[in-house]
Structures
1.
Amino acid sequence: MKIVQVIDRLEVGGAERVLVDLTNLLHESQYDVSVICLLQEGQLDAQLASEISITYIRRKQKFNPIYLYKLYKELQKYDVIHIHLRQVLRYVSLLFYSTQLHKKSVVIFHDHFGRIAENKSINGSIRSAIKKCSAYIGVSEALTSWARERKLNEKVYKLPNIIRKKETGVNYDQKDYNSVKVISVGNFRPQKNYEYLLNVIKSSPDHYHYTIYGQPVDNGYFEKIKTQIKSFKIEHKVTIITNCKDVTIELHKYDIGIHTAKSETGPLVAIEYLSENLPFVAYNTGEVADKVKLEFTEFIQNNFEVNNWLKQMDVLLKSKEELETRIELFYNQNFSEDAYLKSCISIYEELLNSTKN
C-alpha cells in the first residue's frame, strides 16, 4: 500500500499539523508514505521525518495544464491519495474529469473546516468533487453529520484530531513564580475572537502576562488587534509571537492556557494544551470542548463575561497540581496515537478492499 498525503503548503496551521503528525505516525509504523505540496516549501516541512519524500508541484497558475500534468504524474504512483483542505480538493478534482484519477486510486478527502457551525453552505464544485472521492473524513461529529445529511458521499468517517506529545527536557525550577504566564494559540483571523481576549487581558491582574502565538494570515485583522492593544495601553501585559513553528515545545513555559474562538471543529489547540497537562479556559465550541467538559466542566465557558473567565482562571491556578494528574490520564485515554493510527489504517484498508471486489 503506497500512500500520499496532499496539501497546498505546510505552513503553520491545524490541518498542516495533522498531516505532519499522521504522516510521521504512518512512517514510524513502516508504511510507505509520501507528501505532495501543490505550492512550495513551508515552515513545517522540517518536522517530517527526513526519510519521508516531499514533492513540490510549485504551481503558479491554477489552470496551467503543465502543473496539472506534473501533479497527475506523481499521484498515479499511489494506491491511496489522502487530500487535506477544500481548496486542495478543488484543484486535484480537475484531474477527476480529465484523467479519471478517482477511478484508478482510492481518493480520500479529509475535511478540516473549522466554521461548520456557522457556515453550512458548500460550493457546487466542492460538492461534486466530494461525491467522486472514495470517502469523506471529517474531524468532528458536526462535519460528518453535515456530510451525511447532504449525502455528499456514501462513505463518511470521523477521525478526530490528535496532538503528539513532545519530550521537552524542561527544568521547571526556571519558572517565575511571581507572575502568571498565560498562553493563547491561534493564527490571526476574525473567528479567533482576539478582540475578546484583549478585554480579558485589560481586566487581568497586573502580575498576569499573556503570550499569543499565531501567524498574521489575515493581515488586516492582525493590524486591528495590534492597534487595539495600543489603545487599551496593555503592551506591557501581552507579547505576540508570529514565527513559532511548533508551539507544543513552548507550552511548558506557561501556567495556564486560554482559547477564545467562537467557532471551532476541534479546537486542536485544546488537545495541545492537554498534551502538556496544561489547564485552560475555552469557549464552549467544537468536539474537543464537548469531550473535555464531561471530565473538566471547569475548563469550558458558556458565555463571554470577562469576570467569569478571570475567576475561573484563578480557580484553576489554585488547583493546578491536582489538575495536571487528571489531565494526563484523560489525555492518554482519549487521544491515543495508537488508536488514531489504527482508525486511519482501517479506513485505508476498507476502501482498498472495496475497490478489489
Note: The radius of gyration is 21 Å.
2.
Amino acid sequence: MMRAVLTFIPMSIFAAVALDVAVPALVLLVCVIATSAVASVGVWGARGVANMRGDRT
C-alpha cells in the first residue's frame, strides 16, 4: 500500500508539471496556426481582388 502511494505521488507531480507545460504550448501552437490561416486567407483575398481587377497577369 505504501509503495503504491509513493509511486503515485511522483507520477501525479509529473503529470501536473507536464500539463502545466503542455497547455500553454498548445495554446501557443493554436495561435500560430490561426495567425497563419488568417494570413493565408488575406493573401488569397488579395489575389482574388487583383485577378478581378485584371492587375495580375
Note: The chain is about 90% helix and 0% strand.
3.
Amino acid sequence: MALMTVDQVAEFLGVQAIRVERLARENLLVPADKDSNGKPMFDAEDVKRYKTLAERLGGL
C-alpha cells in the first residue's frame, strides 16, 4: 500500500490541499494513516478510485 500526503493528493486531484483536508473531515476520502505531524495520509488506490467516482459524478 503506497501512501500519499495531503499535498500529493491535492496535486493528483488538481485541487487545493485545504479541499483534501475537508474531504477527509467529511469522510469522503478516508485517510489510511497519519504522519508524524498528525496530518492524514491516503492510500494511493483509494485516491484513484475517488477521482474516478468524482469524474463520473460530474467532476471535482
Note: The chain has one domain: 3-57.
